[in-house]
Amino acid sequence: MALRARGIHSIIGGEGESSKKTARQCSIILLLLLVCPRAVNSYSYDPFDPNGNITIKWDLMQLTDSGYVAMVDINNYQLFRHVERPGWKLKWEWPGDEVIWDIRGAEASEQGNCSKYKGQLPHCCLKWPVVVDLLPGTPYNYQVRNCCKAGVLSSITQGPSSSAASFQIDVGNIRYGKKHEVLRPRNFALGLHGYTCGEAIDSDPTKFLSGDKRRKTQALHTWKVTCSYSQFIASASPSCCVSLSTFYSSTIVECPHCSCGCPDGPSAVKFLQFPNDGDSPPPFVRCTQHMCPIQIHWHVKVSYREYWRVKVTVTNYNLVHNYSEWNLVVNHPNLERLTQVFSFEHEYLRNYGPINDTAMFWGIPYYNDVLLQYGESGNVQTEMLLRKDPAAFTFKAGWTFPRRIMFNGEDCVMPPRTSTPAPQLLLWRRRRHHNQGGSGLSPPPRPPLARCLRNLLSCSQLRDNLRRTAYKCLDFSIMPFNPVTCP
Ligand SMILES: *[C@@H]1O[C@H](CO)[C@@H](O)[C@H](O)[C@H]1NC(C)=O
Ligand SMILES: *[C@@H]1O[C@H](CO)[C@@H](O)[C@H](O)[C@H]1NC(C)=O
Ligand SMILES: *[C@@H]1O[C@H](CO)[C@@H](O)[C@H](O)[C@H]1NC(C)=O
Ligand SMILES: *[C@@H]1O[C@H](CO)[C@@H](O)[C@H](O)[C@H]1NC(C)=O
User: pLDDT at position 343, please?
Assistant: First the structure.
C-alpha cells in the first residue's frame, strides 16, 4: 500500500515537491483506511464472482526415459476479469534439477545455463522457468490445440472458447520422491498483477475423448493450481469513477474529486504516473478533477409512461492504453426489467439464485470491443430501455442510479449517495423564470467541463465579476501552455 503510494509521482515537478506530495497522499490514504475500514474488506472478496479463479492444470501424459511429457492448461474461470496483452507469464520452481527439453504452444523466455549438456541442448535449464505464450500465426509444427493467443485470456462470459490456453512440455532429468512418485513443480505465479497462486494439488485424472467420441483415455496424473485475484493486492488506488446526471435536473454530479489521485497544484503535475508493473506501459492519465483513467457517466435520459431510458458513456482518459475486451458490471435493482440494450452485448450475473439485478455489458466484436486511448474516439456508449416496476420505480432519492459499477472487474468510485440529483426540474425552471425577470442572482448551470477539456491539459475553476463559473485551462495543443478560458 505504502509502496504503491510512494510510486505515484509526477513526471514534471521537482524531487522535493514530489516527496511532500507523497507524504500527503499517504496520509490521505491512511485517513481513508481509518475512516472507512469497510473499503479494505470489500476488495478481498467479490460477491459478484465468488468462485472466480484462474486454474492451471498439469496433466502427465506420458513418462519418458528421463522424465515426462505434460499438457498444461490455463483456464480463466472468472466471470468478468480477463487478461490483456502482454498476457500471462507462467513461472514455477522445479523441485530438483529438471530441464525443459521441448515445448510446443509456448516458450521459455530465457534458456539459462545449459553448459552441463552436450550435443542437443535443452530448451530451458532454469530452476525458475518463465513460460510465455506464442503469438497467433505461429508455424503449425510449434502449435498445440488451443494455443498461441499472445497470453490473452478472455473472461468466461465474454469468450468461453478463448478463456483458456494450453502448451505441451517435455521435461527431463526429473527427480522421484521417496515412494517413487514424480515430484511436482511448486511456487507457481501467473506474472499478472493482483493474482496469487496456491500449491499444486492432486486432482482426478483428466479424461480425453477420442476423435470419434467412442473411447476415453486419461492422464497418468493430474495436478491443479488455483490462482485468485485480489483488487486490494493489485492496486491500492481505484482506476475508475462514476458521474451522474438526469433529464430532470440541471445538476451534474461529477466524479468525486481526486477519486483516483489528485491533480496537485496549479502548474506542477500534468499527468499522474503510476508505478510501472511489468511490461505494460504505466497509465498516463489525462488531467481531470478525478484523475481516473476511466470515467463512467450514467445519464437518465427519458421517462416514458411504461419505460425509462438511460445512456451510459465510458470515457478513456488513459493516453497510452487501448482497453481490448473491456467490460462493465452494473448493479441496479431495475436491471431485472431490462428490455433493450443498444450497441453493447449483455448477460446477467447470477450468483444468488435467479436475481437479475446485476448484469455485465461488453462491446460488440469488431465494432466497439476496444476502448481506444484518450481522444476523439476514446469512448464507448450505450442506451438501455428498462421497464418501470410500478411498485418500486421512483425518481426520488437517486433510485434511477446504479448501486455499484465495475470496469474490467475493478470497483469504480461512486459519488456519495447524498449527492444524487434530486428531482428539482420545477425549482430550476422557476429560478430561470425568476432570472429572466432581471434579478440575476442565481448562477447559471456550470459549463460542461467535459467539452471544455477536450484539448486541455489542466483546468481550474474561476468566478468572474458576475459570479459566473468558468474554467481557466491550459491548452494541450498549444506549446508552451497558454491559458484559455472556456467554454
Ligand atoms: C475455481 O473455479 C472453478 C470454476 O468456477 C470452480 O469449480 C472451482 O471450485 C474454483 N476453485 C476454487 C479453489 O475456488
Ligand atoms: C553454468 O553451470 C556450470 C555447472 O553446471 C557452472 O560450472 C558454471 O559456472 C555456470 N556458468 C555460469 C555463467 O553461471
Ligand atoms: C490504440 O489504437 C489506435 C487505433 O487503432 C492506434 O492508433 C494506437 O496506436 C493504439 N494505442 C496503443 C497504445 O496501442
Ligand atoms: C433472469 O433472466 C433470465 C434470462 O437471462 C430469465 O430466464 C429469468 O427468468 C430471469 N429471472 C427473473 C427473476 O427475472
Answer: 94
Averaged confidence pLDDT in the chain: 78
**What is the CA(133)–ligand 1 centre distance, in A?**
23
* Nearest ligand to the C-alpha atom of residue 97: 2
Among 348, 352, 387, the mutation site with the greatest number of ligand 4 atoms within 8 A of its Cβ is 348
> Shortest CA distance to 107 belongs to which of 19, 167, 49?
167
58 forms bridges with which residues in the sheet?
72, 223
Distance 113 CA to ligand 2 centre (A): 6
- How many Å from the N-terminal Cα to the C-terminal Cα in the chain? 39
217 burial type by CB count under 10 A (0-12 exposed, 13-18 middle, 19+ buried): exposed
Question: What are the tens digits of pLDDT across the range 204-255?
Answer: 999 999 989 999 999 999 999 999 998 777 766 788 999 999 988 888 999 9
Query: In this predicted model, what pLDDT tens digit does every residue of 392-419 receive, in sequence order?
Result: 888 877 889 999 999 999 999 999 877 7
Percent of the chain exceeding pLDDT 70 equals 71
* 422: confidence class by pLDDT, cuts 50, 70, 90: low
* 94-151 confidence digits (pLDDT tens): 999 999 999 999 999 999 999 999 999 999 999 999 999 999 989 988 899 999 999 9
The x, y and z cell numbers of residue 24, run together, are 500527503
Ligand positioned closest to the Cα atom of 199: 1
Among the listed residues 227, 149, 224, the one whose alpha carbon sits nearest the alpha carbon of residue 190: 227
Q: Residue 389: CB partners within 8 Å, gap ≥ 6?
A: 334, 336, 337
Nearest CA to ligand 4 atom 2: 356
* Cα 167 to averaged position of ligand 2 atoms, centre (Å): 29
Report the C-alpha gap between 94 and 92 in whole angstroms.
Answer: 7
CA of 334 to the centre of ligand 4 (A): 12
Find the 127 Cα to ligand 2 centroid distance in Å: 13
Which ligand is closest to the CA of 114, given by its number?
2
CA distance 153 to 306: 41
Q: Is the CB of 320 under 6 A from ligand 3?
A: yes
Q: Could you tell me the pTM of the whole model?
A: 0.76
Pocket test for ligand 3, best of 85, 322, 366 (most atoms within 8 A of CB): 322
Pocket around ligand 2 at a 6 A CB cut-off: 113, 115-116
